[in-house]
Amino acid sequence: MSTVRKLLEKLRLIEALHAGAAYEGEREAADSARQRIKEKIRQYEQIDPPIEYRFTLNNGWSRKLLVALLRRYDIRPYRYYRQRYATVMARVSKGFVDNTLWPEFEAIDKELQAHLDAVAERIIKESINADSSEPEEIGILPDTTGG
Q: What letter would DSSP give residue 87?
């Protein structure tokens, strides 16, 4: 199985886990998991009305992932005029964010970052230099204040 397929399978399993999948066969049904999560959203909204959330993400891939997850669950991501590109706004219930959306995002983001890091590492080693170790640490910083 290719590394991309392995990653996609891991991501499907993460989604199924956060949707409350009960058995292994159900875990493989990504569409079923998505529908269960959408139902969770409706349930949360009845007891916990949506509020405006501001998510600030430290890299473009994480931002793209969060936007995709929000859209997957029919939640509209947006930004206000002049907000930073790293900011994603959404109206969603606190319970859904705390119990489903954010834990799922973190799990998928962790897998995605590990995969992207491995790909970048391999490309750098194969095309630029095989030694991608950290730079050597030497002494202390020289005084650059002129005094």
A: E
List, for residues 19-67, the tens digit of each pLDDT value: 655 555 654 566 677 777 777 777 877 788 899 999 999 899 999 999 9
Type of residue found at 138: I
User: Distance (Å, rounded) from C-alpha 101 to C-alpha 109?
Assistant: 12
Q: At what angle do helices 3-19 and 30-47 cross, to 10 degrees?
A: 40
Under a CB-based contact definition with an 8 Å cutoff, are residues 53 and 96 in contact?
A: no
C-beta separation of 8 from 111 below 8 A? no
Here the tokens at position 115 are 């995969």
Distance CA 119, CA 70 (A): 26
Total Cβ atoms within 10 A of residue 45: 15
d(CA 14, CA 76): 22
User: pLDDT tens digits, residue range 90-140?
Assistant: 999 998 899 889 998 999 999 889 888 988 888 888 888 888 888 999 988
